[in-house]
Amino acid sequence: MMKFRTHRVLLAAAAALTLGLTAASAQDATVDDLRMDDAWADLTVDQEPILTDLQFAKLNNLAFQAAVTKICDGYELDQTKFTEGVADASYPAPEATTTSPDLMKQWETAVYFRLGASYGLLLAEGNAHTDLFCASAAELKAEPEVPNVWK
């Protein structure tokens, strides 16, 4: 039961991270849109054969936390926790990849590509709207149910 709740909270947190900045833009008439919606759509359009929704949410959470360490004061990435988080987020691999080393390598490359692309988009959004981005980080850090990879 606790594992299911944690997954539900993680998915909600990922949704808040990816939608929270857009909601903030509605409050500020001088900002058209704080999200790079088209870039996110391009990144996620073909994720299904690569990642489950939960895996994508976990990787986005890790990418967000890594981006926070570059943009917001007072955050430092714990490399061990981050590495364990990536391993957890990418498990299990699709069954087809477990029988072929070549397919496994292709799948791992796709996972790391998506993690890096998410990290890059979050860096761009966070640097464009630092106050809102760092406020989101503080909210995430205060949520005990969401895995935290900061020191």
Description:
It is a single chain. This protein has 151 residues and is mainly α. It contains 6 helices and no strands. Helix 1 packs antiparallel against helix 6, helix 3 (53-71) crosses helix 6 and helix 5 (101-128) crosses helix 6. 26% of the residues are buried. Mean pLDDT is 78; it is low at 1-9 and 18-32.
Low-confidence residue ranges:
1-9, 18-32
**Residue share in helix:** 55-70%
- Major sheet: none
- Average predicted confidence as pLDDT: 78
Q: Nearest-angstrom radius of gyration?
A: 16 Å
Q: How many separate domains make up the residues? A: 1
Q: What is the number of strand segments? A: 0
* Tally of separate helices: 6
Short description:
The chain is mainly alpha-helical and 151 residues long.
List the helices and strands and how they pair.
Layout: H1 2-27, H2 37-44, H3 53-71, H4 79-89, H5 101-128, H6 130-142
Write out key terms for the chains shown.
6 helices; 151 residues; mainly alpha; single chain
